[in-house]
Structure formats: structure tokens, C-alpha cells
Design brief:
single chain, eight-stranded mixed beta sheet, two-stranded parallel ribbon
Length: 418
């Protein structure tokens, strides 16, 4: 078969099925010979002929799974040289389906995925393989390439998502501590997965701070998704004297995160904040909630509005409802992300503080505090501060070794001019 195959490629056309009565031993022999023929042609750098030999052997119904696996791996190696990336993925998919711990299969799949700029998938293949062979230098090299590519794609996706939602990431002079920004990468809005198919349709998550200026108080929520309504949060955050035995799905999502500088314990965190609202004046039914744009335009938050709706409202203020801004335009409206946080303000509807806020009759939000609730050295916002997480904390996207974290770290350094 070896000499005939080398001179007559038509003999390498794979049969659709073996003729009846062909002994299994003969089938196994043919499969083994096709592998040997392919190996010989591969060493001779006759890659297309080697491919054809392997292709013949891979369809033979051999009883030896190791022969089929070896042929598929070798065919993947040939297809890498022939730059047939999708066929490499088909070859390695078969191998990994039968042997998920095949380091060669993972490595060759990663190389093809890199060529297709599918860096996150290539990174996953490399990580799986390195768990099996942690000192494999070629794997480590491919992983570094995959990581660099994944970080770049993630940065591009984030940049697109930020522009699409008219978010303005605001690094201030105070953001720098030595040569590193004070704003941590984990604080910036993120995408999960970090490289979505369409960043414009993907859902961002971020940290929001709800301030109650009248009482110098605040609630912080991390990992809040842009597609979730905002106002229902107050049913949980400000329950008043409502019975606490009925646990709503939203209540189950909020995880109390004790803050080291807060005097509010985790047990108190989900109860009504009587420390600063002893008479239960701040209730979902009595609140008016707002946010401010870059140019201090007030956006009321009503009904089932989400952060995505708030951003769309900011877009519409400058006639940019559907387009993306390729770069920052000082004339347009944006929702500011200050040190990684989107700020919301909640007032008692009809209060003097709300009226002053709407009329911009203040220099700082602290000017709107009621007598007896002003912030001071002894009474700071941290004594009236609660910290929550929307869903499980410590998410993989915020791991310092993750693609998302690295992408946001790079964006912060670019914004700070480092």
C-alpha cells in the first residue's frame, strides 16, 4: 500500500464502508498501514499526500481506538501545516471527545484557535493542557500569545460597550498613587464573558452607589447588571417595618458585605437603616431617585428603568440614540463612572433637598444634608454606609489572573496616561 499510495493518490480516497466479509484483522492492518504511510510522507514534508493517507485511515472502522486517535492527532498536525484551521478543530474535537486529557489534542486545537483569533478558547485549551503538563514550554509560549490576544480583544469589547452606553470613565489626579492608579481594575464595569460575540448587545455589570444626601448615608452595590431594574432594589434596601420572613428572589441575590470602616454589622445590613432613618421616612413609595450626566443634566429613574435605559436617556439628550461615539466628545452627554462607580441620588419626594437638587442649588451633595445629619469628623458617611453584592461575590472575572481583570487594568493605565 505504501508504494501504491505514493504513486497513485486515487487509492487514498476513503471508502464509505468496508465490503461485506472483510475480516476485522485486515481492517486494522489497513488502518495501521495508512498511519505509517502518512508518517513517512510527513517526514518527507509531503504534507498533502500525508493528509490523504491519514484521511484514508481515519475512516476505517478499526477496532483499535488508539490507532484512530493517533491518526487524528497526526492529521491535525498536517492540517496545521496546510493552514486548514477548521479541519484541525474537527480533528482535535474528535480526539478530545474520546480523550479530554490529550495534551497534543489541546495544544493543536489551541494553535488553530490562535490563527482564527479565538483567543479565549485557545487560552482555555492551554490552561487545560498546562494542568496536565505544567512545564511544557511550547504550551506556555502558546498560552502567552493567547493571553495577549484575549486581553486585547477584551479591551476592544469593553471600549465598544462603554462607547455604546455613553459611559465616561473618569480618572482624576487623585487616582494616582505613585505609579499605580488608585482605581482598581475590579471596580470598572465589566463584561462576562470578557469577549462577547457582540459587545453592543452584551450586558455590562458595575458598581453603583446610592446616596441619600439628606442623611449623609449611602448603599453600595457591586456586580449590578445593566439589564436589571433599579427601583425594585429599594424594596429590599429600605423595607421599613415590613415583615422580613418573606424572602423575595431579589433579596436572595443581595449579599451583605461588611465594610471594615462601617459601624453597621452584616446582621443589620439587610434591615431598615434605623441609624439614619429612625422614623421610616425613606421608603420605596416615598423616594425620588436620580442620576446626573457629565454636564449635570438630571435623569429621573422611574418605573422599570435599568442602567441601560439610563445610558440610552443620556444618549438621547444629545441626539446620539443609536450611534456609537468613536472618541470622547466634550459636547455630548455621558454617564460618568467615578473611580469605577455609577452614582445615584435618592431623596424623599417633595422634600426641600430634592427641590434644591433639581434647581442645582448646591455646590456639593453634602450641602443637602438635614440638620443633625451632616457629615463630620465623628459622623462620616462610613458610619451610615452599607455594602452589598448583587449575586455571589469574588467572581472569576475579578481574579487578578483573569483576562477581564488584565484588560481593565490596561484600560485604567491608558486613561491615566501611565
Amino acid at each position: 500500500m505504501r508504494n501504491a499510495a505514493a504513486t497513485n493518490p486515487e487509492l487514498l480516497v476513503p471508502p464509505t464502508e468496508m465490503p461485506p466479509g472483510v475480516p476485522q484483522e485486515m481492517v486494522d492492518t489497513l488502518a495501521k498501514q495508512s498511519k505509517e504511510e502518512g508518517d513517512k510522507l510527513y517526514r518527507e514534508k509531503k504534507y498533502q499526500a500525508a493528509h490523504d493517507a491519514y484521511k484514508y485511515g481515519c475512516v476505517l472502522p478499526t477496532s483499535d481506538p488508539n490507532i484512530r486517535k493517533s491518526i487524528m492527532l497526526n492529521m491535525a498536525a498536517v492540517n496545521l501545516l496546510l493552514k486548514d484551521w477548521f479541519t484541525v478543530l474537527r480533528n482535535t474535537a474528535w480526539v478530545l471527545q474520546t480523550d479530554p486529557d490529550s495534551v497534543k489534542g489541546l495544544y493543536r486545537a489551541a494553535r488553530a484557535l490562535l490563527q482564527l483569533a479565538r483567543f479565549d478558547e485557545a487560552l482555555d485549551c492551554c490552561d487545560r493542557a498546562l494542568k496536565l503538563e505544567p512545564h511544557n514550554k511550547p504550551l506556555r509560549k502558546e498560552r502567552q500569545t493567547a493571553l495577549s490576544g484575549a486581553i486585547l480583544l477584551s479591551q476592544r469589547a469593553l471600549s465598544t460597550a462603554y462607547r455604546h452606553n455613553h459611559l465616561l470613565i473618569v480618572p482624576s489626579a487623585e487616582d494616582l498613587v505613585g505609579t499605580e492608579p488608585a482605581t482598581k481594575p475590579s471596580m470598572l464595569p465589566y463584561l462576562d464573558p470578557p469577549i462577547p460575540a457582540n459587545p453592543r448587545d452584551a450586558v455590562l455589570s458595575c458598581c453603583i452607589s446610592i446616596s441619600y444626601p439628606e442623611r449623609s448615608a449611602a448603599d453600595m452595590l457591586a456586580d449590578f447588571p445593566f439589564d436589571q431594574p433599579i427601583l425594585p432594589l429599594f424594596d429590599v434596601l429600605l423595607p421599613g417595618s415590613a415583615p422580613s420572613d418573606a424572602i423575595s428572589p431579589l433579596r436572595e441575590k443581595l449579599v451583605v458585605m461588611p465594610h471594615p470602616s462601617s459601624s453597621i454589622s452584616s446582621e443589620q445590613g439587610i434591615l431598615h437603616p434605623t441609624l439614619w432613618d429612625p422614623k421610616h421616612e425613606f421608603l420605596p413609595s416615598t423616594l425620588a431617585v436620580y442620576t446626573l450626566t457629565r454636564h449635570r443634566t438630571i435623569i429621573p429613574i422611574t418605573g422599570q428603568m435599568t442602567l441601560a435605559d439610563v445610558c440610552a436617556e443620556a444618549k438621547s439628550l444629545t441626539g446620539d440614540l443609536y450611534g456609537d461615539t468613536s472618541e470622547y466628545d466634550s459636547e455630548k452627554e455621558y454617564i460618568e463612572v467615578m473611580q469605577g462607580i455609577i452614582l445615584l441620588e435618592a431623596f424623599r419626594a417633595g422634600s426641600e433637598a430634592e427641590e434644591r437638587f433639581e434647581e442645582a442649588d448646591f455646590e456639593s451633595l453634602s450641602d443637602l444634608a438635614e440638620p443633625g445629619y451632616e457629615a463630620s469628623k465623628t459622623v462620616t458617611i462610613n458610619t451610615r454606609y452599607r455594602n452589598f453584592n448583587y449575586g455571589p461575590p469574588n467572581r472569576p472575572v475579578n481574579d487578578e489572573n483573569s483576562v477581564s481583570f488584565a484588560a481593565r487594568h490596561g484600560m485604567i493605565r491608558i486613561l491615566c496616561g501611565i
